[in-house]
Amino acid sequence: MVAIGMLSSSFAHRIAVSSLFPNDRVGMSDPVNIGFLAPLSGPVSSWGLPGLNGVQLWADWLNRAGGILIGGRRYPLRIIPFDCGYDPERAMEGARHLVLTEQVKLLMMLGGDTFTPLRSFLNQHRVLTSTLLPSDLSPDTRYLIAPSEVHPVFNVTGVDWLAENEPERRRIAMCSQKDALGLPSTATYRAACEVADLPVVKDIQYDPEQTDVASIVQPMLDAEPDVLCWCTSYTPMVHAMTEYAHQKGFKGRIMSCTFDNYQRVVERTSPEFMEGTLFQFPDFDDPKLARKAFFFNRPSEFFKEYNARYPGSWSAVSWEYVAILEIWHAAVEKVASVHPVSVLTTMKQMEPVTHAFGPARWWGEHVFGIDNALIGDWPVVRIQSGKARIAEFRSVPDWLEKHEELLRDHMRALGQLWQQRVETGALTTGLLTRDAVD
């Protein structure tokens, strides 16, 4: 939990702030409702179901401790899931039910194609909504926040670390799919490589439905790279491309945004081949998390209990929604209200906000059109002896302070700035499963 001392303010200040907004406290026995609108079944359930598992575990912990503290009283938290199956019409149905019938105080979404048709409805009703996909943000999404991760901007930290710590690995070959996840990731890796003076010897953008890994990876190998970078390819492709590189005798470094279920690839290749592989999402039993100003007091215990309850389902999604709940919870207890507008206002005024890996600040206007995304330190993760371990935390804000204009240039070149998405019509996200498949 976020330490209360970090968020303390005078009682008079709390009364003054909360009096500016409608009194929206709940009765002694009434729960505070949180909506969870995401794909819980179907081909992209791996983007939603692990997140529901995580927030339910977090809510159980909170309720066992007495519930959420609002103005001196504690209330239970209730997670209300709605399975939209990543279908826009089902998402609209779910949003109406959760907002109008269940009166949720926070609507948690995956986002993407399921957010687009809800935009006007959520704005009209001033629904505080969270997304895992910052590309949903625009100037007209005043009540939409992306506080958990700002994909793909944190990927600059991995490239930066590589250039500094393994200067002999210079030649980069990269690839990613041509969709709303892959294109901004490609732009970010291009910018990071330019800053680090790392030549990109091959740069492939492939169709999201493509499964012929040889046609992607072999041209990359032919360019004789020191590093194969999968950018933000989906997990099945990350696994398949890594295994292909192993079969072909690649001796360099593997880099990727995510590497869910990396243990499976270690088993299918070898610990030696995977040694030093770089990505951006740690296991939560990592010793360096215990020493970080972190949104969980007990990340290793959360990781252990999650895996005991839901074996084989851990991924980044398992904690990303929880990270959002932690920030919301801190703001609610600070303002002593669950009213969405007052909570959002408090979130934006807290200095600093504590996001997943420590203090963070709101950012995004020049890329997303609105400062509703949180940036801070982000971990660079390396596989060591078959286990993911944090190599170092690096600052995303520090990188952006020096190189944000260059990042915008690369985003603009691939049509990924918010103005371009508005003018041309946003790409459908077209998410594919995060699960590894045989």
What features would you describe in this structure?
The protein has 17 helices and 16 strands. It is an alpha/beta fold and 438 residues long. The strands form 4 sheets. A 5-stranded parallel β-sheet has the order 4-1-5-6-7, sandwiched between helices. Strands 12, 13, 14, 15 and 16 form a 5-stranded antiparallel β-sheet that branches. It is globular, with a radius of gyration of 21 Å. The protein starts with 10 loop residues before the first helix and ends in a 14-residue tail after the last helix.
Please outline what is shown here:
The protein has 438 residues and is α/β, with parallel strands linked by helices.
Give the helix tally: 17
Structural class: alpha/beta
Dominant shape: globular
Beta-strand portion reads: 15-25%
Q: What are the low-pLDDT stretches, counting only 5+ consecutive residues below 50?
A: 1-28
Q: Give the helix proportion (percent range).
A: 25-40%
Oligomer: single chain
* Rg over alpha carbons: 21 Å
What's the number of extended β-strand segments? 16
Strand order of the biggest β-sheet:
4-1-5-6-7
Q: How is the main sheet built?
A: 5 strands, parallel
Mean pLDDT level: 90
Gap between N and C termini, in Å?
A: 38 Å
Outline the secondary-structure elements:
Layout: H1 11-18, E1 32-38, H2 49-64, E2 68-70, E3 73-75, E4 77-83, H3 88-101, E5 106-109, H4 119-124, E6 129-130, E7 144-145, H5 156-165, E8 172-177, H6 182-195, E9 200-206, H7 213-222, E10 227-229, H8 235-247, E11 253-255, H9 262-268, H10 271-274, E12 278-279, H11 287-290, H12 299-309, H13 317-335, H14 340-349, E13 353-355, E14 358-363, H15 365-368, E15 373-384, E16 387-395, H16 396-413, H17 418-424
Helix pairs in contact: 2-13, 5-6, 6-16, 7-8, 13-14
